[in-house]
Design goal:
The protein is α/β, with parallel strands linked by helices and 336 residues long. It contains 12 helices and 13 strands.
Length: 336
Amino acid sequence: MRLGLALGYWGRGPSPDHVPLAQEAERLGYHSVWTAESWGSDAFTPLTWIAARTSTIRLGTAVAQMAARSPTTTAMHALTLDHLSGGRVMLGLGLSGPQVVEGWYGRPFPKSPLTATREYVDVVRQVLRRAAPVEVNGRFHSHPYQGPDGSGLGKALKPITHPLRADLPILLGAEGPKNVAQTTRIADGWLPLYWSPNRPEVYGDALAEAPEGFLVAPMAQVRVCDDVAEGLLPVKTMLGFYIGGMGHAARNFHADLMARMGYEDEARRIQRLFLEGRREEAVLAVPDAFADEISLVGPRERIAERLESWRKGPVTDLLALAPDRRSLRVLAELNA
């Protein structure tokens, strides 16, 4: 099982620790470092900054939001950074949800997410292969554009710049079982948001036909500390925000996932509290058991014991949301 460092996205401003943490992860032998985006900082610019200050660690987006860019634009970002970094890019993509897609990007959330994802990946693949001009006549993506409001003058094109790698890895952030199953067919890997090594049945069927070499790269908060309950608080804060606030009361993919993992009543309670403005109560309503099983928190010996269960399953890459160098170092030592 390889290790990655997940830095996420910025809060109010850039973190001064991100580049030093990435450099430390590289020194410790971590395979990859990952950035993200929501409705603030983008995923590619910080990754480019990190690329200029490292030399071997792989550079991943977990995830770049599909609604933020046309698929050809995303492919341009990926092939450009791949050249500049010497072939280190791993492109993680995600649809996000209706709240963000329609509220932030001002675009309709696709009525058929699986089709929209499949078409998007197809366009990116065509750009990276550069075998012919990009041509797609899909439900959500049309190259050249075929819509009734177009000029009719669009021309199929292929990139001027020759991509460094036609097989640049594409991973998808998918949550629903059908979406995960499709991911095994059209992508090189999967980026689970929550992964519990104790519940392989949640995605067992969806991963049943994953090809050899398929990447499974979940994120997990990693924190070496003496007090487990205190160490779980940041995990619960994250879960309270995602389950309570990253979606609508009637459609929240994160809450639905928590429900499928055996915590349906708790997920709906967190949603209700958060939407009522009782955010602190929503965080405290996150069960310690759920926060604990999707993270690695506690003394070194406890993390060592729990790490074994992560190694036994299909996980190929553990992406650590590690807040400090000590946690990074201990995880590297335990995984050696």
